[in-house]
Inverse folding.
């Protein structure tokens, strides 16, 4: 791990089973309003508080042990998407939501909250919406697609990254963006809005930036370590971090700086999730643990 110091950061911390995680694979990371960190793994949910992990599983009331996604709602509730349904953690207790209907799968891949406080849940065949802990009827025109990421914005829009393109919901209708509109690939894995009002889309064939109605795409030819991108987030300098299947990359607006197992001794090759917490610290999750640095 000594090579991690070459990330030019003050402090790098690695969390894995050796530190108390229920497994090394970290699918998602979230921070709640109390400053606790939550980690979703294939074998349970872990909460990090004051340097110690507490583990939760189906035995504690979760809908399943395989955690796909985590979302800290504005009211302080933590929503947990599992391979077996949707759970909510509030006031120290778990409650589960049966996602009825013609869903062929109970797997909850994504969760977000829109401006009106409605919780959006991304499934393999579309979305469900929850208001006041009640499941709302589907909206006309809702795309029946496998959702990979959801972004709810304060301006009222909700973005869906799916295996069939990028969708924008403006409060009334859904608009689809695809390869013919400028995306490098219809399989979109992540969508992120940066501080400069640019929308970044991680796809399986490159990184795309959507700004003022135009897509600008980046691939290995521009400096990315791989075309298959998994997520994007922004650091305090305004630089965009990209997860790929061949390491991490940091984009300053002109150049990509890549961090791989070979160049910087990273603990993993594939990075599946990443976000910036309230303190400005970056968190990256992989199949070999989670890395945090400031």
């Amino acid at each position: 791990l000594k090579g991690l110091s070459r990330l030019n950061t003050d402090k790098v911390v690695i969390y894995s089973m050796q530190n108390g995680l229920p497994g090394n694979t970290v699918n998602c990371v979230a921070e709640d309003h109390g400053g606790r960190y939550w980690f979703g793994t294939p074998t349970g949910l872990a909460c990090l508080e004051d340097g110690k992990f507490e583990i939760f599983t189906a035995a504690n009331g979760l809908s399943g042990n395989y955690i796909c996604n985590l979302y800290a709602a504005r009211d302080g509730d933590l929503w947990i998407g599992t391979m077996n349904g949707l759970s909510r953690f509030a006031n120290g207790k778990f409650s589960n939501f049966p996602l009825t209907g013609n869903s062929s799968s109970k797997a909850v891949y994504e969760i977000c909250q829109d401006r009106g406080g409605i919780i959006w849940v991304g499934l393999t065949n579309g979305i469900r919406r929850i208001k006041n802990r009640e499941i709302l009827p589907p909206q006309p025109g809702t795309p029946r697609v496998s959702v990979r990421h959801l972004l709810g914005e304060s301006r009222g829009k909700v973005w869906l990254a799916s295996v069939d393109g990028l969708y924008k919901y403006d409060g009334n209708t859904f608009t689809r963006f695809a390869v013919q509109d400028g995306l490098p690939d219809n399989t979109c894995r992540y969508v992120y809005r940066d501080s400069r009002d640019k929308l970044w889309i991680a796809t399986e064939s490159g990184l795309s930036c959507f700004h003022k109605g135009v897509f600008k795409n980046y691939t290995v030819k521009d400096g990315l370590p791989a075309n298959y991108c998994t997520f994007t987030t922004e650091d305090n300098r305004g630089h965009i971090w990209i997860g790929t299947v061949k390491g991490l990359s940091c984009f300053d607006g002109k150049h990509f700086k890549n961090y791989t197992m070979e160049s910087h001794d990273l603990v993993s090759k594939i990075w599946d999730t990443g976000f910036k917490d309230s303190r400005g610290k970056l968190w990256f999750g992989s199949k070999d643990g989670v890395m945090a640095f400031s």
About this structure: Confidence is low (pLDDT under 50) at residues 1-6. The chain is about 0% helix and 50% strand.
